[in-house]
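Slide 14.
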Amino acid sequence: MTQMTIDDAAWRGLLEDIAGYFDELTLMRGFQYYKQNRVDELAMEEPERLSTTVRGKAAYTVSLDLASLKKSSCDCPMNRGCKHMVAALMAYAALGGRPVPAIVNARSAAAAARGTGAAAGKRTDAAGAASARAGAPAGDGTAGRTPAAASKAARVTLTENELAELPVSEWHERFQQRIGPLHLHVRSTQEAKELLSELQAMKPELPLALEQVFSLHAAFFVLERMVKPAQADWRQSGFFMGYHTQIAADELLASTERSLEEKLVMSPGDSAYWRLLLETADHLRNRMLVEEKSLNCFAALYQSLWLNWLGPAAGGSSPLYEEELLRLKAAELEHGAALSRVPWTLAQCLLWIYLGRDREAQKLLEQTGGKLLLKPALVVPLLNVIQRDGQWERLRDWLVATGPLLSGHRSEDLSPYCDYWTAVVERLPEAEAAMWQTLAGMLPYSRTIYEEALVAHSRWERWIDYQMSCGREPLDFRAAMLKPMEKEAPEVLLPFYHQAVERYVLLKNRDGYKSAVKLLKRLAKLYARMKREERWELFFHAFASRNSRLRALQEELRKGGLLS
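Slide 15: predicted structure.
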């Protein structure tokens, strides 16, 4: 597909059009189609009109009028306002270098903008009412007030030049001046939205890149109003955040991480915005390094910043990563025992991966990982970086190195880790031996993923040996679980079934005899599948004769149709 250009004004207009024309569900469905690569090559028929084919249940032709989406069409049954049109618009945005998630969030962004305007209108109405009560004309907000009162009433704002020139620390000071002594603690989603709207009202319309950075810091500011009061008291009362505050913080954190995943609309050579990014990294680092360990709020944002806006694909360089490593080293001496070790360790590992210094990263994890009880979810972003680059030998080495550090976690938490092994073995079949050795070394915590891997690779004999060593019985499993083995390798099930039958008989009770009969019927089918009916007859005759005095067992054998 050829590259297309979308300027800032056209992009803002298109997002407004999308927000007004499509509903939330259609946007989400269109995003799924776009992610599944269902959009064929775009053709620009006229300056404001393009067409393409989107593959759904059939191949549908979409014609987009970028000047007015209401004039667009699709030959699907809906004809207009459909997910096929959304998918085509997303493909167009991607070709124009614009962030596709902005289309998914177009309606929520428009709603937030309307909320800002409504808040501003309420403030104007309130000022007019106050003036009227003071005997002043409604349009004069300062009538009847002293100069000091009029000055106090002035709202703090930020111009585009100020945002481009001031350090981000000054932005946060202006934020605080704007809200005054109130809003020191944000406790709910509604309060968070109101505060974000208030901060958005401080600025004029900005270039998209500066808008992205400003919105990011507005979210940081609100997050601090949620986290800081709770964290300040944790040493006295244990870290605790109210239920509604936790929900609000989680929602804001998730939306902020999504913003960082959007492409930053700036060139790597833009020194003004690059300075703002480095100051943003300083801002997040300072908060991450003293964050309470169970919180992982600013630590997640710091990592997301370096994964996306400061990563190699976004213009990050080796000198930048070396410098950040020096800052992290210095922080260890500065903070001492108050240092949050987990994010500090993971931050260094990510930078060392960028620099290709894997051994240093793995050594740090080996030294501290066991003490820190690293969660698998925290290691996943590091593995993602390597997998994304298709460096499979390198990923294998990382999986071998990190496996022992994760062995204290439950199998469900280890599932993403096992998925990386699956991807590696698909590309490097010779890595399978390392996978089995690593997963076996993580037992018993890796039991579920170890068993699933054995089944996925049809390692039936090893699967049976493991179940027998754990003392498990065939009837512990659903019949559907054992069917693949009964078809592909019935001989491996024979000792599993035979030994279980003998154990059930030794229980010398009715339930044990019933279980034994169930397994004997399965054994009969296995021998028939293997075409060894004579061996089955010899075994069963000896079994029935040996246990002929067990009258209850004989009854169950007759009920099961095994004895006449």
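Speaker note: DSSP finds 28 helices and four strands in the chain.
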